[in-house]
Specification:
alpha/beta, Glycerol-3-phosphate (1)-acyltransferase, 2 domains, eight-stranded mixed beta sheet, 15 helices
Length: about 450
């Protein structure tokens, strides 16, 4: 339970820093009392259990593949995080020893028994029924282990335990990028006792039916693409022109989720009824993004700003903010750059598997920022001999770090806008062609939206 007594507050802070926005849809479902079995998709390895654990007050035990328990250090970490090893067929050869199928089954029965005991105490367990972590917007075939555990736990109490299964869809909007967004989309819980009669008649068939229901509810709360090409098309549309498709003034991550789901349905509708429209949008969107990349611009740099102020007044206001904020920005960079840059360097060198990049950055960042802040504060106290100055300096570190991040984002955005203005002066025909491409794309997307909404 070390994670919940020592590490959870630190992880909560780290996740709030790592993600720009972490939104929970139907948070009351995550607060329901146990016994509870949470089933989730698994696109981002260590991040997936962490984003669930920090949002549930009651401790969660995790079912994790046995290979994580081979190394003494990783085993100690997993056990401190309240994890239970589960053995898969591909884990028959563990390196130190070779398990026979019978031994593997015996190990899993032991793991199941620990789960039953945990549920008997009203506990919460989280499992990833896909059985593997892959960074893609897909849902792989689910293993029946979650359903078997749930049914077995209820059967021990003649289906009076009160166990529920809570299907969870974790939707990352850019999983490997620092300061991206994540939506926890919680489905309606499943009452396991409702499958009592089916279990008594045929336990295996009941597990299959329950697994299918878990899959159905998870799928309804996820963005699922069929191919990489479809994923790229939808991602480009939602990131580039999403603001033209979402009607709400207050945009939430759930709005973005619904937009993505609608775009996927629209793509599949037009593939069947008007494939040329999809091809036209795809071709023009690809050409537009290529041109933006060639000119080192973003679509945002071409977006006209709303409001009654003139371009000159906006530029003056932005310039003043940047000039006046520069000293605070430099203070934040000087005090935060080293612990900020080390995690990304280590992650790039440590792995080529994209699903491991974010967890490595998070864990390394927790270590580098903690050591840096403690060490720098100690130095300030050493030279000032004042606890007050040391405390004020320590408080300034995260505040200045956040300010520096925000300042750099505004500065980069302003520089791209200035580049666009300079290109308009120097290469006006080229930029007018680019704006025409953009206007034509917006027109095509809006027409497609209207056609899809008016379909019969």
């Amino acid at each position: 339970m070390l994670f919940y007594t020592v590490m959870k507050p630190l992880v909560q802070v780290a996740l709030r820093v790592f993600f720009r926005q972490l939104e929970v849809r139907h948070p009351e479902r995550l607060r329901m009392r146990g016994p509870l079995l949470i089933t989730s998709n698994h696109p981002n390895t260590l991040m997936d259990p962490l984003v669930a654990a920090v949002n549930r007050r009651q401790p969660i035990a995790f079912l994790a593949k046995s290979t994580f328990f081979k190394n003494p250090i990783s085993r100690a970490i997993m056990e401190s995080g309240n994890s239970i090893p589960i053995y898969r067929r591909q884990d028959l050869d563990t390196g130190a020893e070779t398990l026979t199928p019978a031994q593997l089954e015996a190990q899993n029965e032991k793991a199941f028994g620990r789960c039953y005991d945990y549920f008997d105490k009203g506990g919460t367990i989280m499992i990833f029924p896909e059985g593997t972590s892959v960074s893609e917007r897909r849902l792989r075939p689910l293993k029946t282990g979650a359903a078997r555990i749930a049914l077995g736990a209820e059967a021990r109490h003649d289906f009076t335990l009160g166990l529920h299964i809570l299907p969870l869809g974790i939707n990352y909007f850019d999983p490997q990028r620092f300061r991206s967004d994540v939506l926890l989309n919680l489905a309606e819980p499943i009452r396991v006792a409702d499958y009592a009669e089916q279990y008594r008649q045929n336990p295996e068939a009941a597990a299959d039916v329950l697994t299918e229901e878990i899959r159905r509810r998870m799928e309804a709360h996820l963005i699922i693409t069929r191919t990489d090409e479809e994923d790229e098309l939808v991602t480009q549309v939602e990131r580039t022109f999403g603001q033209h498709l979402i009607q709400d003034d207050e945009e939430t991550l759930y709005d973005n989720f619904q937009l993505s789901r609608t775009l996927l349905k629209a793509v599949r509708y037009f593939e069947e009824h008007d494939a040329s429209r999809i091809s036209q949008v795809q071709e023009k969107l690809h050409a537009y993004h290529q041109q933006l990349e060639h000119l080192r611009l973003t679509d945002e740099a071409l977006e006209s700003r709303p409001g009654g102020s003139t371009r000159a007044s906006r530029a003056l206001a932005a310039g003043l903010r940047l000039v006046l904020g520069a000293p605070f920005y430099l203070y934040g960079v000087i005090n935060n750059y080293v612990p900020y840059i080390i995690p990304s360097v280590i992650a790039k060198r440590a792995t080529k598997d994209v699903e491991f990049v974010a967890p490595i950055m998070l864990v390394t960042g927790m270590l580098t920022f903690t050591l840096a802040y403690v060490g720098q504060t100690a130095l300030v106290y050493h030279f000032t001999h004042s606890w007050l100055w040391a405390l004020l300096y320590f408080i300034s570190l995260p505040l200045s770090g956040f300010y520096a991040l925000n300042y750099w984002g505004n500065l980069a955005s302003r520089l791209r806008r200035l580049r666009a203005l300079r290109l308009f002066r120097q290469q006006r025909p080229l930029m007018e062609t680019l704006l025409h491409q953009r206007t034509e794309l917006i027109r095509l997307i809006r027409e497609a939206r209207a056609a899809y909404l008016d379909r019969k």
